[in-house]
């Protein structure tokens, strides 16, 4: 669960999405650019949700809560 | 990286590197920067939790030696956990610029702490009443 890789993963994803966004925008397809951004956000949200859930579980076990 | 015996150099290094990366991200993709902030915060927080658990078990041993009611120690731990989690969530909200969400989360945390600590307050009042009569 605990690894600093996820920060770099998200940063890389953000850079890729940024590049794709600007390329598609240059090609004149504004609505597809928006779709790419949305997909990136959903992927990040999925990664983060799992981590948050694990984090809450570990807080619970640290403070001996049921 | 070994997280079981984390020291301050690992925490400081991760914090500095994450900050550098976040400065870069925040200009381009603010929403992804928020996700990265959340991940970095969780990793820093969770890295130090195993150290805290040894303190908790030490205090638990002390509490049971001094003959304290086990219920009270459980309440203290619960209050600690509530305040840590509420503070963490409020800091994330504030970082995203949502002051309202941060204050609501903090208020919910305070109310939950009050509700959790109610048995102790009642016990104190009972003792006071016993002393007065």
What does this molecule look like?
The complex is a heterodimer of chains A (66) and B (133). Chain A has 66 residues and is mainly alpha-helical. Chain A has helices at residues 5-26, 30-62. In chain A, helix 1 (5-26) packs antiparallel against helix 2. Chain B has 2 domains: 1-52; 69-133. Helices cover 87% and strands 0% of the residues of chain B. Chain B has 5 helices and no strands. In chain B, helix 1 (8-28) runs antiparallel to helix 2 (30-65), helix 2 (30-65) runs antiparallel to helix 3 and helix 3 (70-95) runs antiparallel to helix 4 (99-116). The termini of chain B are far apart. The A-B interface holds A 1-4, 6-8, 10-11, 13-15, 17-18, 40-41, 44-45, 47-48, 51-52, 55-56, 58-65 and B 1, 3, 14, 17-18, 21, 24-25, 28-29, 31-33, 35-36, 38-40, 42-43, 45-47, 49-50, 52-53, 56, 60, 74, 77-78, 80-81, 84-85.
Task: Briefly summarize what is shown.
The complex is a heterodimer of chains A (66) and B (133). Chain A has 66 residues and is mostly helical.
The overall average pLDDT of chain B, rounded, is 88
Tally of separate domains of chain B? 2
The best one-word shape of chain B is flat
Indicate the mean pLDDT of chain A: 86
Structural class of chain B comes to: mainly alpha
Helix content of chain B: over 70%
The main β sheet of chain B shows up as: none
**Helix segment count of chain A?**
2
- Beta content of chain B comes to under 5%
Specify the structural class of chain A: mainly alpha
List segments of chain A where confidence is low: pLDDT < 50 over at least 5 consecutive residues: none
Fraction in beta strands of chain A: under 5%
SSE topology string of chain B? HHHHH
């Amino acid at each position: 669960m605990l690894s600093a890789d996820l920060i770099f993963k998200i940063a890389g994803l953000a850079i890729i999405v940024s590049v794709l966004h600007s390329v598609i925008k240059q090609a004149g397809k504004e609505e597809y650019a928006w779709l790419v951004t949305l997909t990136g956000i959903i992927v990040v949200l999925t990664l983060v949700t799992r981590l948050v859930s694990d984090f809450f579980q570990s807080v619970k076990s640290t403070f001996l809560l049921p | 990286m070994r997280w079981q015996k984390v020291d301050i150099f690992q925490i400081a290094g991760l914090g500095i590197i994450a900050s550098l990366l976040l400065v870069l991200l925040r200009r381009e993709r603010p929403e992804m920067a928020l996700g990265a902030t959340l991940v970095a915060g969780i990793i820093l927080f969770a890295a130090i939790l195993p150290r805290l658990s040894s303190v908790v078990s030490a205090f638990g041993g002390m509490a049971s030696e001094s003959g304290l009611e086990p219920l009270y120690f459980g309440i203290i731990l619960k209050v600690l956990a509530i305040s840590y989690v509420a503070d963490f969530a409020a800091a994330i909200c504030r970082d995203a610029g949502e002051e309202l969400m941060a204050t609501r989360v903090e208020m919910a945390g305070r109310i939950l702490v009050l509700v959790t600590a109610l048995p102790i307050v009642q016990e104190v009042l009972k003792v006071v009443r016993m002393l007065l009569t």
